[in-house]
Amino acid sequence: MSEIALAVVGTAYHTPTADRLEVLRDVVVAVDGAGEIVGVRAVDSAEGVAAIAGAALVHRLQPTQRLLPGLVDLHIHAPQWPQLGTGLDLPLERWLFEYTFPLEARFADEGFARDVWAHMVPTLLAHGTTTAVYFSSIHEPATLALAEQCVRSGQRAFVGRVAMDHPEGTPDWYRDASAAEGVAASRRSVDAIRSLGSELVQPIVTPRFVPACTDELLHGLGALAEETGALVQTHCSESDWEHGAVLDRCGVTDTHALAGFGLLREGTVLAHGNHLGDDDLRTIRAAAAGVAHCPLSNAYFANAVFPARRIMQAGVKVGMGTDIAGGAEPGLLHQCAIAIDSSRILHDGVDQRLPAGERGVPDSRLDAVSAFHLGTVGGAGVLGLPVGRFTAGMQFDAIVVETASVSSGMRAWDGIDDDDDRIFEKIVRLTRPADIQSVWVAGRVSGRGRRG
Ligand code: GUN
Ligand code: FE
């Protein structure tokens, strides 16, 4: 066996499939110096004993602690961090122009940007977000500074300079000077992030969404993704307004428009997707792209509940996103709980004046296992990352949750919570940052507990 840099000893939970919790009771997770899991062994097996004896560092969990995979947040607007928790009184099209674009424009000030990033990235790690997919602003220095902060804090990340040039879809004080300049700035940003030489932090091509971009810019960014091999992220079929605006302008749905611009590629992250039709789903599946489900933001902007079950059943890759600051909650684990809640509302329906049998959309329910699967394995699958579960060959991105918590009210009660499924459900619904006691990315301690 290769050299073992870290052995984590305790009971782990993960969800390799959407329908079953797998309990790894009293195991040793052995991690090599490159952050790769080299084995998961019973603690009392010969291999387990040898892994502990040979490890440079041994981390033993308390009986009340559980090891879980780190969370993969597929959709964060980094420059909206200062408005987290505010401004959700307007519909998307007004929220962008009245609150969000003015705030994002301030990231022309690189010093301000660095202050925000230094507050945001460690906070997200403290919430258990070990992989983050970021929309930055249109500014190259702020975007590079965000990538640098992720490297410093040890967060796995995709960082995208936002491209937007449409004369009607953007204000003249916050847009790329032209399509050509938008593509050129995005190319420079991809190169600059790659030149950091980090294995954890990658660039991602980021057209904001079709209404904010001219056809020329969208075509140019599709070509840039092809040329550089970088992943793509954008918004797709988020709200009635956005879905309708693309149909009006392009004569086809958002999905097909993006495909025509060369932006629907393997690993493309489509944020929201609330109004996707069956034909869109077939197209997304064939392209091996995926959808970021952002349930809290959807409650404000989407005009519908995302049909997560239907989309999973269509064979489309789905992960979870906070959509900070459209979603006013920084933690992805908490977002998983909201995904369960919103799926139940979709299942049962909302208008009590209708007969019960006509109110909802049957077969829509998510539970703690399926929601956590989306927040870990699902997101990793969209991005093509070897994270999200504890199996040899995967990168060790993980968190430790303390289940005996005063602050969140979580506790595994003797004689009541002897079943791991109950403890797991409590973890998904009740964990707060104070309960997340260790965070590792690629086998290294990350965030506030990080040394050096
Ligand atoms: N569509 C285009 N830009 C945005 C944004 O910043 N947030 C959300 N939720 N949708 C968008
Ligand atoms: Fe968004």
In CATH, what is the homologous superfamily of the largest domain? Metal-dependent hydrolases
- Portion in helices: 25-40%
Major β-sheet annotation: 9 strands, parallel
Overall SS class: alpha/beta
Beta-strand percent range: 15-25%
- The CATH architecture of the largest domain is Alpha-Beta Barrel
- Taking Cα atoms only, what radius of gyration do you get, to the nearest Å? 22 Å
Sum up the overall morphology in one term: globular
Average pLDDT rating: 97
Which ions, cofactors or small ligands are bound in this entry?
guanine, fe (iii) ion
First-to-last CA distance: 28 Å
Query: What is the CATH topology of the largest domain?
Result: TIM Barrel
| Domains, number | 2
Total number of helices: 15
CATH class of the largest domain: Alpha Beta
Low-pLDDT runs of 5+ residues are none
β-strand number: 17
List the helices and strands and how they pair.
Elements: E1 6-17, E2 20-31, E3 37-42, H1 46-54, E4 57-60, E5 65-69, E6 71-77, H2 92-105, H3 110-126, E7 129-135, H4 140-153, E8 156-160, E9 162-163, H5 179-194, E10 201-207, H6 215-228, E11 231-236, H7 240-250, H8 254-260, E12 269-272, H9 278-287, E13 290-293, H10 295-301, H11 308-313, E14 317-320, H12 332-348, H13 356-359, H14 368-383, E15 398-402, H15 420-430, E16 436-441, E17 444-445
Parallel strand pairs: 1-4, 6-7, 7-8, 8-10, 9-10, 10-11, 11-12, 12-13, 13-14
Antiparallel strand pairs: 1-2, 2-3, 5-15, 15-16, 16-17
Bound molecules: guanine (GUN) and fe (iii) ion.
